[in-house]
Design brief:
The protein is mainly alpha-helical. About 75% of the residues lie in helices and about 0% in strands. The protein contains 8 helices and no strands.
Length: about 160
């Protein structure tokens, strides 16, 4: 029974998990993507009973986010221990590679990290306010307010950039 549920979760949600991780992979290598998806699914398998039936994707994205954060921390520790090697400077982030419009890129870059993540989870990953609320452990109304504020700040930044 657990294997059937896990198989269904993998089939239904692993493409979304892979896309989520791919867009946020930088500065990790694209070769790390499969390992991160695999590690995410391993955590899902180990904690299968903790996956809420009404919020499977948000819960799994939360796991992927933590896996990605751990990978980024590991990368940072490696770079610190290899101080002789210069950090990559001219590489574009995953967001920059997708967004060609410099105005949009600058507006996204100017947003606070939390606003940008909230906005991108909605726009790129398709999470609605109910799912965002589950992911951040806040009410649907609080998620809607937070999304609305992030969208307003983004529009303001776009307007400021166009007026420059």
């Amino acid at each position: 029974m657990d294997e059937d549920r896990f198989t269904r979760l993998v089939r239904e949600h692993s493409p979304a998990i892979g896309n989520y991780l791919r867009r946020r992979l930088y500065p990790l290598s694209s070769a790390d993507l499969d390992d991160l998806v695999e590690e995410t699914l391993l955590v899902v398998w180990r904690r299968l009973n903790d996956v809420p039936p009404d919020a499977e994707l948000p819960w799994m994205i939360g796991v992927a986010r933590n896996v990605l954060r751990n990978a980024h921390r590991s990368k940072n520790r490696r770079l610190a221990s290899e101080a002789k090697l210069p950090p990559p400077r001219d590489l574009s982030s995953a967001e920059e590679a997708v967004i060609a419009d410099t105005t949009v890129r600058e507006a996204l870059r100017s947003l606070a990290d939390d606003d940008r993540e909230f906005l991108l989870l909605h726009a790129w990953d398709g999470l609605n306010t109910h799912e965002l609320g589950k992911l951040y452990a806040i009410s649907t109304n609080a998620a809607a307010v937070r999304l609305s504020r992030a969208q307003r700040r983004f529009r303001e930044l776009l307007g400021d950039a166009e007026n420059d």
